[in-house]
Write a structure and sequence with these properties.
Blueprint lengths: L1 H16 L11 H19 L3 H9 L2 H10 L8 H6 L9 H42 L1
């Protein structure tokens, strides 16, 4: 049940984030590019790794998040999980697939770094409160 709900939310997110063509323009080659774009987004969502690394990078501070935003260049070739599990390896050189994969994977990296930054700020605040309480007793 949990997997079904997660898959449904993932599909909705992919559909919303990948809707770059109007319904009227999806014909012929546009339809093919749109399909490849969807596959790239789905592969990045499902298989792109390095979550722990970006969470830790976010703990460095806002510079970790900014560094991820500026320097992150995800590629399906650089991710062993995507290389091993993706059924779309034949599309790894396709521009439509790559653009969609890179966009979603980079957003995923930035989100993880931001979560790491937020968690580190909360941890610092909790430690400060605990230390303050220990000093006042």
């Amino acid at each position: 049940m949990k997997n079904t709900i997660l898959s449904a939310f993932t599909l909705v997110a992919v559909m919303l984030s990948s809707y770059s063509y109007s319904q009227d323009s999806i014909r012929g080659n546009d339809q093919d590019n749109y399909t490849k774009s969807i596959k790239g987004t789905m592969d990045a969502e499902r298989y792109h790794g390095k979550q722990a690394e970006h969470l830790l990078l976010g703990c460095v501070g806002i510079y970790g998040v900014a560094g991820t935003a500026l320097l992150s260049e995800p590629s399906p070739y650089n991710d062993p999980k995507t290389m091993a599990l993706s059924p779309n390896r034949d599309l790894f050189n396709d521009p439509s697939y790559l653009t969609a994969y890179e966009k979603r994977a980079k957003r995923k990296n930035i989100n993880n770094a931001a979560i790491g930054w937020g968690v580190s700020r909360v941890a610092i605040a909790v430690l400060a409160v605990v230390a303050w309480g220990a000093m006042s007793h």
